[in-house]
């Protein structure tokens, strides 16, 4: 049987096979106990660019963490298709997948060069304004980096003790300056030195995905566990989409 495209999936138990790239992969932990894994999340994208959110709950996550890598392509079968979450939707899809211990996964070694890499939906200025302090869905933006702060620490309501943060300022295609605040491991992992060095000779474009729009500083984006960034992606394909 041929692989199904994501829009053709029906709600309920599914034994059909989908061939997708794991565009994003992250773990979501209890905010009160950062050692307690609540679920593993993925954003999957098929050969036509359709995307969907997938989750795996413990203990089934153990079956996937060493077999599924971000950026890899896989076939999945025997999973559950259900309505998407009410909050924190990473993609615009009314359905999502739940993988279980019964889910079969096989790596695709011969991946076509045209198989999409990025799952994104760049927010307009109007969408940014409408999403301020909303947890309904994550927000994706693209822009030229104009400033990068040093890392610093601050106290937040969600975490005990100090949290590390870094602010990246971008200029969007609408010529709006927008602060993206990266937290904890994301703040330290952001390749600031490399970007500043390369920025001496050419503008540095960044695509941020999986952020939340916040009201602090007027309007800014917050990037934590679900946030990813892509430095100098293929902007011709991105902006033509």
- Fraction of residues in β-strands: 35-45%
**Separate helix tally:** 4
Give the SSE order as H and E letters. EEEEEEHEEEEHHEEEH
Instruction: State Rg.
Output: 18 Å
Shape: globular
- The helix-and-strand class reads mainly beta
Major sheet details: 5 strands, mixed, barrel
Cα distance spanning the termini: 30 Å
**Neighbour order of strands in the largest sheet:** 1-2-3-5-4
Q: Spans of 5+ residues with little confidence (pLDDT < 50)? A: none
- The number of strands is 13
The average pLDDT is 91
Helix amount, in percent? under 10%
Give a structural overview.
It is a single chain. By secondary structure, the chain is mainly β. It has helices at 125-130, 185-189, 192-198, 235-240; strands at residues 12-30, 33-45, 51-56, 73-83, 95-99, 104-107, 139-148, 152-155, 162-171, 177-183, 205-214, 220-223, 228-231. The strands form two sheets. It has a five-stranded mixed barrel. A five-stranded mixed beta barrel has the order 7-9-10-12-11. The chain is globular. 29% of the residues are buried.
């Amino acid at each position: 049987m041929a692989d199904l495209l994501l829009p053709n999936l029906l709600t309920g138990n599914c034994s059909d096979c989908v061939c997708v790239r794991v565009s994003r992969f992250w773990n979501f932990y209890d905010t009160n106990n950062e050692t307690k894994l609540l679920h593993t999340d993925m954003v999957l994208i098929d050969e036509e660019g359709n995307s969907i959110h997938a989750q795996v709950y413990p203990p089934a996550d153990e079956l996937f963490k060493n077999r599924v890598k971000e950026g890899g392509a896989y076939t999945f079968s025997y999973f559950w298709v259900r309505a998407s979450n009410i909050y924190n939707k990473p993609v615009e899809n009314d359905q999502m997948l739940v993988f279980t211990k019964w889910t079969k996964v096989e790596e695709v070694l011969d991946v076509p060069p045209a198989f999409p890499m990025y799952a994104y939906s760049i927010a307009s200025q109007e969408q940014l304004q409408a999403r301020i302090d909303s947890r309904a869905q994550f927000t994706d933006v693209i822009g030229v980096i104009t400033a990068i702060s040093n890392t610093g620490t601050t106290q937040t309501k969600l975490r005990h003790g100090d949290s590390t943060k870094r602010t990246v300022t971008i200029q969007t295609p609408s010529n709006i300056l927008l602060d993206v605040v990266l937290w904890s491991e994301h703040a330290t992992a952001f390749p600031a030195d490399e970007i500043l060095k390369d920025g001496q000779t050419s503008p540095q474009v960044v695509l941020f995905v999986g952020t939340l729009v916040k009201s602090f500083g007027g309007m800014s984006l917050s990037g934590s566990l679900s946030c990813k960034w892509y430095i100098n992606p293929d902007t011709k394909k991105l902006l033509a989409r």
